[in-house]
């Protein structure tokens, strides 16, 4: 769909207007990496192009680092971590985080512009993501000073036990393109709060948001030997984060396949891991649900970021008695969505991230239609848009044998399955190896408690499609991963508990 051929027939990639010209603070656009304490270009000036998914134009050439840059950054951040932990009080680290939060919010327009251009999401959503990203920094600036240990009655005579919480050390942070800002802050704000240092491998699709956030973190007072940002297209190079013995923790958001591979490599040196992996979220509408609430929730939950979130509803399970009414109302609202370049103010939904993402949605749609699904809206690549677009699509009559029942589409396809009993809905909902998020809609309080207990997932939305927030533990079970981000539990992922037993207290 997108090619790099110019109108005069040459095959030079076409470039976007320089992004820095679109910013109030041009310095926020940075194509170098922050490696071993300095902004640097890669050796031999190696770069990779970063594209605008809405047009295929090149936004910039990002520095492309090798394994050595990871190893050097890990060494630098290893020294930095000792300093950060031993010379900064929790209150000082909290102050730095608070300043970083404030500067992210002050620069929301520029950050959202960079994010929308490289990710494609609508500018309103991009602004929302920046606020969401900042909320983790604020949250952990507050959690930072409330990291308490225990005082435990000892079973030995004349003894006492206390515990303290210590930072794990250097953390390897590998983040996804679907939330170029929030997935970085959700990981590194608790790491800093705990007193850890971080070496970040940003996504190669969206490295410029990560660079802008790093600039603001440094300006807010994060020491230059406590953070490194190492962009690369070379997956082997970034695996240094999973095998280097000086790295004590890996935090990754992405596919289950890559999460398993990283976990297995990290086990070589028994690193702590947090893995936020794939999902296949059920969205269950019972016969007693308020359908207006359920339809509005489906729009947010299914089509947020054009369907590219791990917690997006993947399967809409609707009771047979309300399925027609629900589907009609959903289709009527989907009709009003405005596809376009994220950066345009009237766009409600932007493109997908790349050609492979569009191909996957198309494959799921074709498979569902071949197996008896009925197309209610969408079902094609839109005319007149050159980027990686796919129309928001609703299919009714979805069944268990369809690909979309088993595999996360990660795109704007809402397949509607029918059920007739609560047990059937639960069996369908839990028929997956994943367990990230689930949603259901009902007015019956007993059912709320029963179904919330029975759904095998880490996060549940009842009568809402929006569950993500700094205060709420984010994470899954089963093949959706391990660990919790955000919330009062997020800090512990970056800490070790030390138990100290003191004997011979009574002389
Ligand atoms: C994700 O898709 O990985 C994160 C979504 C969220 O934080 O809501």
UniProtKB/TrEMBL annotation:
Oxidoreductase among keywords: yes
Pfam families: Aldedh
SUPFAM superfamilies per record: ALDH-like
Domain Aldehyde dehydrogenase: 39-500
Reactions it catalyzes: succinate semialdehyde + NADP(+) + H2O = succinate + NADPH + 2 H(+); succinate semialdehyde + NAD(+) + H2O = succinate + NADH + 2 H(+)
The protein's Enzyme Commission number: 1.2.1.16, 1.2.1.24
The protein's annotated pathway: Amino-acid degradation; 4-aminobutanoate degradation
UniProt keyword Oxidoreductase, yes or no: yes
Keywords assigned by UniProt, alphabetized: Oxidoreductase
UniProt enzyme class: oxidoreductase
Any Gene Ontology biological process: gamma-aminobutyric acid catabolic process
UniProt GO molecular function: succinate-semialdehyde dehydrogenase (NAD+) activity
Active site positions, chain numbering: 276
InterPro entries membership: Ald_DH/histidinol_DH, Ald_DH_C, Ald_DH_CS_CYS, Ald_DH_CS_GLU, Ald_DH_N, Aldehyde_DH_dom, Aldehyde_DH_Superfamily
Family in the record: Belongs to the aldehyde dehydrogenase family.
Protein's name according to its UniProt entry: Succinate-semialdehyde dehydrogenase, mitochondrial
Species: Aaosphaeria arxii CBS 175.79
């Amino acid at each position: 769909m997108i090619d790099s051929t110019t109108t005069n027939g040459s095959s030079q990639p076409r470039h976007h207007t320089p992004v820095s010209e679109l910013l109030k603070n041009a310095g926020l656009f940075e194509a170098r990496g922050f490696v071993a304490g300095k902004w640097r270009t890669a050796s031999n000036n190696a770069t990779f192009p970063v594209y605008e998914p809405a047009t295929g134009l090149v936004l910039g050439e990002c520095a492309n680092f090798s394994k050595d840059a990871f190893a050097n950054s890990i060494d630098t951040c290893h020294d930095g971590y000792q300093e950060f932990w031993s010379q900064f009080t929790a209150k000082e680290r909290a102050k730095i985080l608070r300043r970083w939060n404030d500067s992210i919010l002050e620069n929301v327009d520029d950050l959202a512009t960079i994010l929308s251009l490289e990710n494609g999401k609508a500018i309103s959503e991009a602004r929302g993501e920046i606020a969401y990203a900042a909320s983790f920094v604020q949250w952990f600036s507050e959690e930072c000073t409330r990291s308490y240990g225990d005082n435990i009655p000892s079973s030995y005579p004349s003894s006492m036990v206390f515990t303290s919480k210590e930072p794990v050390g250097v953390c390897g942070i590998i983040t996804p393109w679907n939330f170029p800002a929030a997935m970085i802050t959700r990981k590194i704000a608790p790491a800093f709060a705990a007193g850890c240092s971080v070496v970040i491998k940003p996504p190669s699709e969206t490295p410029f948001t990560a660079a802008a956030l790093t600039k603001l973190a440094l300006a807010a007072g994060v020491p230059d030997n406590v953070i490194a940002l190492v962009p690369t297209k070379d997956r082997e190079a970034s695996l240094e984060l999973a095998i280097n013995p000086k790295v004590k923790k890996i935090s990754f958001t992405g596919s289950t396949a890559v999460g398993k591979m990283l976990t297995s490599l990290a086990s070589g040196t028994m690193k702590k891991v947090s893995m936020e992996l794939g999902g296949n979220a059920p969205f269950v509408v019972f016969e007693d649900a308020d359908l207006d609430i359920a339809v509005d929730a489906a729009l947010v939950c299914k089509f947020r970021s054009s369907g590219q979130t791990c917690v997006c509803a993947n399967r809409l399970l609707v009771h047979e008695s309300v399925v027609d009414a629900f589907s009609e109302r959903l289709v009527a609202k989907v009709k009003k969505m405005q596809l376009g370049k994220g950066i345009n103010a009237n766009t409600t939904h932007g493109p997908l991230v790349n050609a492979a993402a569009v191909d996957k949605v198309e494959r799921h749609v074709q498979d569902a239609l071949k197996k008896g699904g009925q197309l209610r809206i969408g079902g094609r690549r839109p005319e007149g848009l050159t980027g990686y677009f796919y129309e928001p699509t609703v299919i009714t009559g979805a069944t268990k044998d369809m690909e979309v029942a088993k595999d996360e589409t990660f795109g704007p396809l809402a397949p509607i399955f029918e059920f007739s009993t609560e047990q059937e809905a639960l069996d369908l909902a839990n028929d997956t190896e994943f367990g990230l998020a689930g949603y259901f809609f009902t007015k019956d309080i007993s059912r709320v408690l029963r179904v919330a207990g029975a759904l095998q997932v880490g996060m549940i939305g009842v009568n809402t499609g929006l569950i993500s927030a700094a205060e709420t533990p984010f994470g899954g079970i089963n093949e959706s991963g391990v660990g919790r981000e955000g919330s009062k539990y997020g800090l512990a992922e970056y800490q070790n508990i030390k138990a100290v037993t003191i004997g011979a207290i009574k002389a």
